[in-house]
Specification:
Elements: E1 2-15, E2 19-26, E3 30-36, E4 53-59, E5 68-75, H1 77-81, H2 85-101, H3 109-120, H4 128-142, E6 161-164, E7 171-173, H5 174-177, E8 185-186, H6 200-218, H7 228-240
Antiparallel strand pairs: 1-2, 1-4, 2-3, 4-5, 6-7, 6-8
C-alpha cells in the first residue's frame, strides 16, 4: 500500500542509529506515523522540524504497518518561526495539540486546513492568537465535541451571550449567567462570528474556553492534560498583555 499527500510535521523521535519515527498530519489521510530513513542525518534533521510543510509519500506492506515516508520540503515554517519567540511558541503549541488530539489514520481535512492557515499567519501577532482559538473551536467540532454558541442554555435567548457553561458546553447570556459568573467560561464575540476583530484579551478568553473543553472532553479520555507547549504559549501571551494602558507606552488620559 502507498499514498501521496501533503502534510505538516508534528514531531520526530530517533529510531535506531540513523532513522526517525515521524508523526505527520496530512490533508487527506489524517495523522500518520512512519519511519524516515536517515532521519537523524544532517540533510533530514532540518526537514523534520515541527510545523514544516512537506510533500509526503508513504509506503507500507499493509495499511496497519508502520511503513516509511519519503518527504520533500514544501515550506520551512519552523525556520521562519524561530525568528520570534511567540511565533515559535504558537507553532509548538499547535503541533503538540494536533499530535495529542487528532486520531491516528483518520482524515480531518478541515482541521488540517485551519491549522495550515494558523501556521501561515504566525508572523501576525495581532491575528494568530484568535486564529488559534478558532482552530481549537473547530477541532472540538471536528472530533464530535462542538460547543453550542448560538443561544442561551437557560433561556434560549440569542442576544448578549457572553459566557459558556463548563457543564453543558452551551452559551449563556449575561443575565442568566450573572449569579454564576465566577464559574462561567468567557465567550468573546469573535468566537461566535459576530466580530471579525479580536483583541489579545479576547483571544486569551477564547483560548481559556477552548482549552478547558479540549482537556475535559477529548484529552481526559486518554488521561492526558493539555500539552505543556499549549500551556506555555498562553502564559507568554498573558505576559505580553499590558496590565495597564500606561505600561503599554500609551499616554496618560
Amino acid at each position: 500500500m502507498n499514498f501521496t499527500d501533503q502534510g505538516i510535521i508534528l514531531d520526530a523521535r530517533p529510531h535506531g542509529e540513523t532513522a526517525a519515527i515521524v508523526n505527520i498530519v496530512t490533508e487527506l489521510h489524517g495523522r500518520w506515523a512512519g519511519l524516515v530513513y536517515g532521519g537523524q542525518g544532517k540533510r533530514m534533521r532540518p526537514v523534520l522540524q515541527p510545523g514544516n510543510e512537506v510533500g509526503v509519500e508513504w509506503k507500507g506492506r499493509s495499511e496497519d504497518s508502520l511503513g516509511h515516508f519519503t518527504l520533500e520540503m514544501a515550506r520551512a515554517r519552523a525556520g521562519e518561526a524561530m525568528q520570534d519567540r511567540l511565533s515559535l511558541a504558537g507553532l509548538s503549541a499547535a503541533c503538540a495539540l494536533a499530535l495529542a488530539t487528532l486520531p491516528e489514520r483518520e482524515a480531518h481535512a478541515r482541521a488540517y486546513t485551519a491549522m495550515a492557515v494558523l501556521l501561515d499567519n504566525l508572523d501576525e501577532i495581532d491575528l494568530w492568537p484568535a486564529l488559534m482559538a478558532r482552530w481549537e473551536l473547530g477541532l472540538l467540532a471536528e472530533l464530535g465535541f462542538g460547543l453550542t454558541l448560538d443561544r442561551c442554555a437557560s433561556t434560549g435567548a440569542r442576544d448578549n451571550l457572553i459566557y459558556v457553561s463548563p457543564r453543558s458546553a452551551c452559551a449563556v447570556s449575561a443575565e442568566a449567567g450573572e449569579p454564576y459568573k465566577d464559574k462561567m467560561l468567557p465567550l468573546p464575540a469573535f468566537l461566535r462570528g459576530q466580530s471579525a476583530e479580536a483583541s489579545l484579551e479576547d483571544a486569551l478568553g477564547a483560548l481559556k474556553t477552548t482549552g478547558f473543553f479540549i482537556e475535559t472532553r477529548i484529552l481526559h479520555l486518554s488521561d492526558k492534560p493539555l500539552p505543556e507547549a499549549r500551556l506555555r504559549v498562553v502564559e507568554l501571551l498573558k505576559a505580553k498583555k499590558p496590565a495597564h494602558p500606561r505600561e503599554s507606552g500609551d499616554p496618560e488620559p
